[in-house]
Amino acid sequence: MKNMESERHTETTASQPTRKRLGIEWPTIGLMIVCYGLWFTSGYYIYPFMPILALALMAVAVAFHSSLQHEALHGHPTRSGTINEVLVSLPIGLVFPYRRYKHLHLKHHADERLTDPYDDPESYYRALGDWEKLPAFVRVLLGWNNSLVGRIVIGPALMVAGFVVNETKLIAGGDDKTRTAWLLHGLGLVPMLAIVWFVFGIPLWLYALTAVYWGLSIISIRSYCEHQWSERPDGRTVIVEKSPLALIFLNNNLHFVHHKRPTVPWYRLPQLYREQREEWQRMNGGYVFRNYFEILRAYAFRKKQDVVHPVLRREPAPGRAFRPRRHGISLQGGSTLPIPAEPPKE
């Protein structure tokens, strides 16, 4: 019955009159200019006189840019996927190739597999068998990482290390798409690092350990409790109602609304939520926080959940990895509309 309620809501909202999709979404273009402007102004004008402030502002720009990349991979601010990619192609966040982020994040949008340690690329859960093989000190680190302060302090390091290791394996295994994504990323790094080193005069190691790391820490605040295990897919995604960080996150704190309407631009999410607030909360089973301060008070030094997934992947299941059937082709820039996927075959 609850699944039918979810489907009914999707059909209802989809059938309501919607604004005609504009060729260019100027609010998003404006924020892209603000983001790059903040980054450049901080490095060129502020760093020589107030380096700590400059690096902090650049960290905000890095987090902001990550949110803009997220917007771009969902088909904004233009109908051209190529143009959207170019608009966010300067990798001021240093670490994650845009095409890899796009591929993995769209796979993550198969809601029926959210939190799966293998099938959800953004899951923080581990399979029981994998957990038992980890060294004790790694288990301790992953346990700390499941508190909010731990996620902010050590989360970026763990995330980058795990990502680089996995990407290296894919490239070594002959994955051409992954290799191409990293090649394009490397081409973008050349002008970006040249600007940081020669124009701003910031040592590259300092930029990486401050602006980039702090930027990832800001993003970690948003991602900390975005998803949890629930028997109902709709109950796996959080709603954080209000936050001063909402603009940096491009309203992705309303994460459940985004998952149900993934092609809606960031500036329409609050209105969608306000119009049917009670229904959204009923659909996701009340997995709602008023703000991030409420999350901080509850989970600053206490883990919100165990690292081992409580239900999925408790037993080894080789060859049963989930694969989405396909992604829908939209006019908003390529494969941006996730299609419900088939579960693993028995």
Automatic annotation (TrEMBL):
Domain Fatty acid desaturase, first and last residues per copy: 52-288
Lineage: superkingdom: Bacteria
Region (Disordered) location: 318-346
InterPro entries: FA_desaturase_dom
CDD domains associated with the record: DesA_FADS-like (cd03509)
Transmembrane segments: 21-39, 45-68, 148-168
Keywords: Membrane, Transmembrane, Transmembrane helix
Pfam families: FA_desaturase
Any one of the GO BP annotations: lipid metabolic process
Name used for this protein in its record: Fatty acid desaturase
